[in-house]
Amino acid sequence: MGSTKDKNAQLASNMVEPNQNTRITTDFGTKQNSTDDWLRVNNGDQIGPGLLEDGFAREKIHRFDHERIPERAVHARGTGAFGTFKLLESAEDVTHAGILTDTSRETPLFLRFSTVLGSRGSADTVRDVRGFAVKFYTEEGNWDIVGNNIPVFFIQDAIKFPDIIHAGKPEPHNEVPQAQSAHNNFWDFIFMHSEATHMAMWAMSDRAIPRSYRMMQGFGVNTFTLINAKGERHFVKFHFTPELGVHSLVWDEALKLAGQDPDFHRKDLIEAIDNGVFPKWKFGIQTIPESNEHDFDFDILDATKVWPEDLIPVRYIGEIELNRNVDEFFTQTEQVAFCTGHIVPGIGFSDDPLLQGRNFSYFDTQLSRLGVNWQELPINKPVCPVMNFNRDGAMRHTISKGKVNYWPNRFEAQPPATEEEGAYIDYPQKVQGIKERAKSVKFKDHISQAQLFYNSLSEVEKSHVQAALCFELDHCDEPVVYERMSQRLADIDLTLAQTVANMVGGPVPQQLGRANHCRTSKGLSQLEFIDEKPRIDSRRVAIIIADGFDAFEFNAVYEALKILKATPIVIGTRRSPIFAADQNPSTDKGIVPDHHLEGQRSTMFDAIFIPGGEESIKTLSNNGRALHYVREAFGHLKAIGATGEAVHLLEKAIQLPGVMLSTANDTEAVESYGVVTLKNAHPESLKEIVTVAKSAKGFLERFVYVMSQHRCWQRELDGLSTMV
Ligand code: HDD
User: Fold this and answer.
1) What is annotated as the active site (predicted)?
2) Going by CA atoms, what residue is nearest to atom 37 of ligand 1?
3) Which end of the chain is more exposed for a tag (fewer CB within 10 A), N or C?
């Protein structure tokens, strides 16, 4: 047992699917002939009282009354998918875990993404840390990596978890705000706990507003251990790096999407998998031999610290792919239950004080969320045999036959396994010390890595952190909160502290709280992850048309985007057929747009393209929503393409002297600030070999390359993005 096929078969054995041949029954199997009318005593035309006797009706209502289970205490809002893990290189030098040494295996998995603070019905695009929880159904049992998209955590010791979560969740007196860290309690907590400074900087960076779950890194965060066949132990951190690069929304877009499409990330994942553009991540490990534990100026068991990649490079040994959407949200995504304590032979814990507490908390929370037999639910069930003397409890499914329910027993039935049989063997770690409520001295440096992170960001990213802090602290109305927090920022960077203090009305610090070590590190700025291999797979491109559009230009771009696996979506002035300039509405079918301009806004796309056509552009130029579409996409730094008469639309919408657009005679594309135009779009000029090429000059190649860069940061650096 253990392949994806086996897990799918196991899941399928629990599935039912309504079809024309199935009939409605009660929960106990009796076919029903009406579920629309409660059994009642009528008198001719006079309706009479309902009868308690109607067990069918009572069952239906009872079941409805009990549909809800408690939502997760944190990470309540999420979405998941099935996939596979493939090992590309054996890590047998550091572990004997089958999943990390056997390259012939394909291990099935389930991955659930989430936000942390919001409730189940909150919006996807809020500023928050994202959960990245993976359940590997290995041949030796389930292995869960319950990680985040940020590699560090707010607190060092699990005992502080209720405090940070209480402080971040809506305030107790009025239950405001929902799914936001922008409030007094959260920032009061951050100030009171300087250990949270490092993660707070990550949470204020673009990492906390991802473009897509498919474009975020995943980190195990805690320090685990690996044990090899020789019995040697290494400390380890787990990494997942997305093939599509690490990309974010811009803040204004994230805010708007929260209202315009609260399910944006959910739908994005479903759409990509449905379209066969399966998201992939490289799986990597950072390892440190046990003997080198104390070689660093930070404690490697402190979850508020990264292991800088210049010091400890990530070794990529495998890859995960998500390739199947769930069949049912509740029984799979909602009922999936992760535990950091679930590890398999060859993998162990460390004394990381956050991890130690997590190992208690997750099992415990599943008991109240799902009940004692939660591990028997299909989504949580291992693919290998489960045999033990744990018994009974509410909703037990397994029927354990035989006379014995204890070990040892007179039949010698079901003894524990030996090491040779694959038993989990605890690492014989020597432990010695004083029993006390304290941590080692290296846990006391709370600022160096916050500086390391901030120093490593690009100018654009730094300005986003500043803006995020200005936004968040503006939502704090108690001066003690924003004043003290503005001061704390001076421990990291003076310009940052001064900008924020000035904006939010705190006292403007005149000097650094402590000297800047001026160090930077690899792997912290997300711009590093942009250009590995330029591509536009699954990028959503709005193609905007009105009656009279140019069919040739439309088709050329539409087809090119399809070839490059992007997702072109036609946006019309209405959703009923739109006719090209050379089409006749009474005889031709026209094009049925996917949406109209009001239905899907520019925020939902990575780029926009407008084909020419005299009539079409005349209509769009007089349409406020169309002009806003272009302006908003420009302000959100997105690639914009226009051919033929559509260049006039851009002239009207953007009107910025710095942005050059092509002129009437241009037969070659012009690119300026990520706006790609071609005025004279005759057939020859759009007959290009479509590749994502940096140096290419043709319209299509320029347009898709700009798109592959995700956003045109230069627009923002030159102050153009706020001017439209
Ligand atoms: Fe946690 C859920 C990630 C610290 C207690 N956590 C939860 C989920 C993720 C994380 C991704 C959602 C899992 C899912 O999709 O079902 N948590 C983290 C990370 C942490 C972390 C990366 C720091 C390294 N968590 C942490 C601590 C505690 C908890 C220190 C308690 C001492 N976390 C929980 C929980 C949750 C949870 C209350 C709520 C629902 C659940 O477990 O299954 O037990």
Assistant:
1) 75, 148
2) 74
3) N
